Amino acid sequence: MPESVEQWWARRQWTTGREVPYPIGRYRDAWAPFAMLVEQFRPDRNRDLLLSQVPPAAEVWLVWMCAIGHEFVSTPAEQRRRPGRSRSNRSWCPVCSVAGALPSGGKWPRPAAAPAPPEPAALPAPRLARRRPRHVPAGAAALTTVRAADVAVGRAFRSAIAPRATSATEGAVRAAIEARLAVDLTPNAVRIRTPFFERLEVWPDIVIPELAVAIELDTIGRNADEHIGRREAVDRRKDRLLREVGWEVVRLRVRPLRPLGPFDLVVPGMSQRAIDALVERVGEARSPLFVDAYRRQA
User: Fold this and answer.
1) Each residue of 183-220: pLDDT tens digit?
2) Residue extents of the structural domains in the chain
3) Can you give the pTM of this predicted structure?
4) What is the CATH number of domain 143-292?
5) What tens digit of pLDDT does each residue of 246-276 get?
6) What is the DSSP string of 8-49?
């Protein structure tokens, strides 16, 4: 008989004698094929538990949310048994699937077309003022972006479409590298030979052109669904494409993630000690004599 998440968790604490009967990541491999289920799970409505802490066969009522915001209750086994591993298009949301919620025919009617606005009166053409040339600050040339098609294969460059860095850890790693190595970290992309999601460029977290080393900072994320399952396969393909053009990849991975490459570093958490170890691992990824040429003097 399924029970509430509070009752289920308290009972597991009593039977196991542990404050946390199932640690984060315990069942991540079991849930990895069900990416949309991970997105539908609501930790804030389930005692702040992560889905990777819930056994797939647990007899417990959990709260889920479909893509448009409808909340519903279901057990893990019920969710996994339903057709379609991708859980696409709000599938199995009780509110969305209620037949009476839709008009006859199963489709919402299209809204009536709005009346066309009246034609505006003709206005005289405005006089265009001459623009003064924009002042370009010193050093801006180093931040000029280029297209991947204009870059040779295997070269690092600054891409206009690469996402901006938002992680505080990434900033700390950049500062640690710049304090130890005289390298240019302004590039944010590497030109590859084979398209990656229809683009001829990849965007590592940190790019070190002088050493041809790409650094990635990996955690499982708040919902314990990052860099696992299909997303891990994407990481492996990205690493493979970089190595095809002569680059090496060093990943700093937080447990319970596992190493993907020979130079990956697995740590308990993002800390200054882990960042220091990462910088040393970058030196191991290339010849120590080669890396020593870029080391800053103390």
Assistant:
1) 999 999 999 999 998 899 999 999 999 999 999 998 88
2) 5-101, 143-292
3) 0.55
4) 3.40.960
5) 999 999 998 888 899 999 999 888 788 888 8
6) HHHHHHHHH--SSSS-TTTTHHHHTT-HHHHHHB-GGGTTT-
